[in-house]
Request: fold
Amino acid sequence: MSDEMYGAAIKDLAAREPVSLAHPDKSVTLDNPLCGDRVSLGLRLEGGRVAALGHGVKGCLLCKAASSVAAEQALGLDAAGAAQLLDQVRGMLKTGGEPAFPALAAFLPVRPHKSRHDCVLLPFKALSKALRP
Amino acid sequence: MSQTIRAAFPALSRPGFHYLDNAAMAQIPGLVSEAIASLNRVARSNVRRGLHEAALRADEAYDSARATVGRFLNAPAEEVVFTGGCTLALNMAAWGLGRKLGPGDEVALSRLEHHSACLPWMSLAEDRGFAIRWLPVTHEGRLDLDHLGAIVTPCCKVVAVTHASNVTGAVSDLPRLAEAAHGVGARLVVDGAQMVPHGRVDPRSLGADLYAFSGHKAYGPTGIGVLWGRAEVLQSMTPMVVGGGMVDAVGDDDVTWADPPHRFEAGTPPVAQAVGLAAALDWMMSLDGQEIHQQEAALTWHLLDGLGSMAGVKIVGPRGLEARVPVVSFTVEGCHPHDLAHLLAERGVAVRGGAHCARPLMAALGLEEGTLRASLAPYSDRSDVEALLVGLAEAVKVLR
Reply:
């Protein structure tokens, strides 16, 4: 039974209000066609690094929680950093890597549920895509 | 009766397994698997090409499968085209009727359509320059035919609708749509994927010109679908896929297409799948259709009643039993359908969460996050519905 996947840590992350950003330098919207999750990001950039971020999610609880974590981690990242962050999350979910930072540990119970990995990865993919040159 | 039927489906013997995802794919009776295996044992050969014994057996089995589908549809076998699936059948219909349309022409699509039914027309419209007109839906998720005359005008060349919605379960009023379409000289193309699994269909008497359905939703194998068409309509259509076995003559500069149905079956057809589908339809025809209908209706009512009594649950679609198939969509306040589907799966209940490949409908109903869908079949029973209702209550507690 994977009820523990929906523990307090995930629920708290998912409950955080997304923030909006007026006049972003870059914006991207990414869909997960399987379940209909949609993540929208707006970025303000300084020297190729994220100076401010707005995000919105229409999606499941896992996707909302992941979006909160991605938003927290995004500040200061450049394209290479966002790609590395995506690799860290992917590695933890798919190849059993350790959580690269404490907030990621909330997603450890998702590991055995392959069909839900994309729900978690979507916001990190969106961030990486938004920063890609 | 459902217990007798259930016993014919090996996949349903697993204790604690409650399969309510029949609108995506139905389970397969053991006799269908055996029909496919038997063909592969004694008649594995290409069709309409060989003179040896296995080839003759394959020919006979394939022709017989076509005749069975014809009986199911109350149609001559020559009007039955085997395809790789319903999606391919609907693409073939769009290509066959739409490729010569252009600016000034219109195609009317219902907002109930599955992407497999609307995207072929939208893609073709972009290429050819004809216009798409959308038939609206009511708040109950039925086709709104009040303004049919304003949409199906003399510019309209094709009306494409689903027979039964894969989201709301609403059954379309095909005779009325056919009258409107034929009144302006348009063809009526029908997606029957969700209707056929619930009993025999007579597309000609309903006014359809082309009617498509898939095998895997009708207790048959994957990789097989059917495009039925009135003989004169099929005869007027050019094939979308060309290749071996579908021409009468090939010259340096011209070809003569074979008559339907072979014109639309280029290459090696899905012989074993066709035989499997025929076995499935034969099995369906062996059941008492009236009894099945009553059983499915009683169970649907139990499901609607149970869902309706749960706090925060909203039925997306008709709340009654009139003109519907046993496909029930719903939302739960504060819970995403995908999270609920996951937690239900953990409890042995197989349902589907999401947009169900019906984005135009989701947009019209304001359901950006989709719905949860439970879909019944003749083998569904009360324990399946109970498991869903109990599991749903538990899942909601987990998520809130």
The mean pLDDT of chain A is 93. The domain at 8-131 of chain A is CATH 3.90.1010.10 (Sufe protein. Chain: A). Chain A has one domain: 8-131.
